[in-house]
Amino acid sequence: MKLSICIPARDTVHTLFAKQLALLTSRLTEKSIEYDLHFIIGSVIADSRTSLAKEALNTNPSHILWLDSDIHFPHNIFERLVLHDKDIVAANYSTRYSPYRSVAFIDPNDTNKRLEHKSGLHKVWGVGMGCMLTKSTVYNDLPKPWFKHEYNKDTDTFSGEDMYFCNQAMHHGIDVWIDADIVLAHIGTKAHLL
User: Fold this and answer.
1) Distances in whole angstroms, Cα of residue 60 to Cα of each of 133, 174, 179
2) How confident is the model at residue 158 (pLDDT cuts 50, 70, 90)?
């Protein structure tokens, strides 16, 4: 088993994220799990994820762990997610801004229907990729582009590259799962006025 950890970032990463990443890599070393680390700094997230996936796949990993640089995750995250033996399995977390809601969606036709379960393993339509484990074989089964922003003329909005990825998986017979027992924090920023 070999793991590639892929992190799309902008100019900085949060201190809490950096601490957990250090603890994760220390634990992987302690458990003799081979891994490599991939960072891309960029502002177009679909492009960053595509570059990261290609870079990681060139190292022949069995799994890719996607971590966003604004997520606080447990240091044993890989061990917990890999136990499920799913093609795609993620942890749920909240949006960064109010109203705070789950980023796991259960109905592709109604984005107001979101996973609210606090425990167990659940099949979902899509989830944010802030903390997601994929088997490398997924990228052979999905056509390119793997990541893309799509415009929805009905809502006059753009979907994220992560929802596009999950939607592609669904259309190609690959299920997306959530381990609701894993608790994550989505690190945001607030400005306070006196």
Assistant:
1) 15, 21, 26
2) confident
